[in-house]
Amino acid sequence: MKRIILLAALIFSACQAENITSQSQTAELAASNQTREIAMQSVAPEFLISARGIGKAKLGMTLGRLKKISDPDTVFEIVPSFMVDVDAIAVSHKGIVQYYILCVADNNEDSNQLLFDRDRVITALMTNNDDYQTEGGIKVGTPIKEAEEVYGNAVLAYNTEGESREYITFAGEHPENIQFRASYFKLISDGLGFSGIYPEYPGVSYTTDKYRSDAAIAAIEVSCNPEDCIN
Fold this sequence. Notes:
Shape: globular
Oligomer: single chain
Strand order of the largest sheet: 4-5-6-7-13-11-10-9-12
Largest sheet: 9 strands, antiparallel
Protein name: Lipoprotein
Structural class: alpha+beta
Keywords: Signal
Signal peptide: 1-17
Number of domains: 1
CATH topology: protein yfey like fold
Helix content: 25-40%
CATH architecture: Sandwich
Number of strands: 13
């Protein structure tokens, strides 16, 4: 009889512990969802990353139009050789870069002339400023593990022929013209390496679904095909 009572007590304790764990996990998930919902509700249009653009900069918009609608103290500066074959225009406000307008480099043209091409159509943008976020509440600095809760399982990849730029592809639905960088190119040059944990084999293209525990979104890009880029 004592054994039966003891066994019943053990089962009860185990069930109670399991119930507490389940309640704790549910509470954590609810808190995470609530935090994301608050973030989504609080994001202002000028800080939204969408399929249309980043903040005030919209795909298909001309540089002249962006300058016209930007705050008077907004500064536009050229960043030559921002990436291989890519120059950039850094758009800053109060000394802080908000985002970059990416432009295909023309070796026959002075990159500084980009600033004066008011008719240039914006086809690619990138930000590493954590003031900006997507409709899903994802921004630079968001842990990849947390981003998976919004966009599905993550796969990280890089190609040695593509300047080893490391990108993240999520299994869930999100605008296909929004790309997430797993490691920002300047971070790699500082010796911080990749976010993904890749198999050790010689090759050109590398892919993995495993990543460092501290891996986070490093930059977000929005782009469109020039022929389809209409604002």
